[in-house]
Amino acid sequence: MAGRVSAVDRALASAAVRAGAPGRIRFTRRQLYYEVCRGLLPLHRLPRRLRFTLPAPVGYDRFLAALDRHGPVPGLLDDPASRVAAPADDVPDLYDYGLPRLLVCQDAAIAGMLLANELHMESACPVFAERDLPLDPRLTDALRRTGDAAVFVLHDASAAGYATVDAVREWAGELRVHPLGLRPVHAAALHLTTASRRLTAGPRTTAVDLDAPAGLEPWEVRRLRAGHTVEVAAVNPARLLRTVHRLVRGQSRTRRRSARLRQLQAAGFMTWPAA
User: What is the DSSP secondary-structure string of 40-87?
Assistant: First the structure.
């Protein structure tokens, strides 16, 4: 038995290379897990017009065991620290001169991943986690001072994800809030792996009391109400960075929007498959 390498071990070795490509991207443990799933079940290569999500081909516990056997993985981030936000005194100019955009992530680990890859510098957009709410009141003042500031929300395709959007809207008040997604339609077009009970925080129910967000298709609402979850972590790390950068820099400059576009923005219309 000694020296035998399992399919999961081989998939992990390949996934560790893909997750960090190109340019030594840093990634979370969950993102690495989903890369392993893509390697074991590579149906994401099928045409996007065939919309479906995938069950996980390997359990999270087996992945963790393989990760222990593999040893250190370059680029793999530690679990998020107790606080993602930077101390207020580190950014005095931000409060003095205004802030055009800000991103709030449902998942603290994803917020940490974006920060570790310096998206906040590249996109000129501070990044926080939902658990950091309420943010420093000076941030709200800086956003208002800009006049056309936008608060973006990066969330899972789940009922909890849209609850995050509601929480951000409650904090933001009159400021513009744009959900970026993930939406169920994005997850289906990209053939992403669904989250298992082992991965989700807290108990999962078979049905969720959810007010239908404007702009979602009926089948998307049904999936959310059924408790179906696809995590942002299931998106390839490089694709995630490209898409978030493009959207936070592009949307904040948009001025005139049709009624349909405003409705889609309210639901989270991030065009993941085109990224």
Answer: HS-GGGS-TTS---B--SS-HHHHHHHHHHH---TTBPPSP-S--SPP
